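If your schedule permits, I should be very grateful for your opinion on a structural question. I would ask you to consider whether the tokens describe a fold that such a sequence might reasonably adopt. Thank you for your consideration; the sequence and its tokens are set out here.
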Amino acid sequence: MGTSRSGNAEFAKAAAIAVLTARNALLEAVVAVSNDLLQATELDATVAATVTRRIGRALRADRVVIGRLLPPDERTRLGYITFDHEWAAPGVARQTDNPALRTFDLAHYEAHLKVIERGEPVATLTEELATDAGQAEQAATGARSQFQYPIMVDGTLWGTFGVDDCHSPRVWNTEEIATLKLAATALGSLVKRGRLIQARIEAEQALSQERSRMAREIHDTLAQGFTGVIMQLHAAEDALENNDLPDLARHVALARDRARLGLAEARRSVFALRPPLLEDGDLASALRTYVARVLRGADVQTRMHFKGDARRIDPIACIELFRIAQEALSNAVLHAHARKIDLHLIIDDRGGVTLEITDDGCGMHAWATHSGTDGFGLVSMRERAGRIGARFDIDSRPGAGTRIQVRRTARAAPSSAGGSPQTS
């Protein structure tokens, strides 16, 4: 009798030590995992592999998965859960290796979903699942029992931390559940931190883009406006030297008109609105008006050729093409000292557009047109063309003038609006 009692006591002691050892191993694994998650910036494959492996081994589980919720579509009213990350014990089939078992319809697990959405874990046997479809899916994974702990982000269910046992059902105790809560909470914190970091990156990118946009707009409004004013004042000085008072008055009036137009453009462009000349007409009419107002009085002959219906060009492309033309015309007059400028705008029946500006000015070296030393204006033109998916080409040689071409192919079916060739 004494021997039997002693043996039972030793067995109970050994069992208690085994339980404590298992709990300690799980606690150590979760603490290590939580520290890793606190150091991470996103839940990527490397981080997830460490989390699932450490906890899976500590639990002596067969499979550990991290599931992420997907919204409903026309096929399901509750949405889906997809398993992005998985650890499987040796000899256990990986669930994520089977495309049919990577994503489950949550309608098969509606009762469990209601519990998990409240932030509470669910442990169940495969044979006890409420739906035949759910039983079939879990049986296909080889799981005999499942445990799902919710991963919450800002009080909303983001996904689950799941443990499968394939050889024998597991009975979970409160200590294990409480410990796994730490891991699920750390996972939720990491997901939230990743969102915040991504939001900050997107905000910084938006700020950088806005700065670039404002730089372009200031260059294309204030700078171009001052260029026009300076050009007219130079002409006024020449008229003054020749004592030609009528011509002097005319150039001063043109300078005043250009200054007012530039001020209006600056105010509107800073707020990303359309250039004033585009508000009352299409791109072709805006270019006609711009040339008439800005280049009038300059010693340059400008010929414009328009073909097609400019109304086919979308509003964003109109703005970018107008700014490119504005920059090219200003460069031709102020820097290249051109005497002749040809401007072609061709719109095809599908809305494809070609803008080409050619001048007989002093031209540039090839290295200057294709390097980073070509000044902000040329860089701005390239960027504007890129923003609307257009190809930007420049051909220039010293003493041989410059040709700038922007070409964008059609992106949509032809509109119903008709158009006829125009020439100015």
In short: The mean pLDDT is 82. The CA atoms of residues 254 and 296 lie 8 Å apart. The chain has eleven helices and twelve strands. The two ends are 118 Å apart (CA to CA).
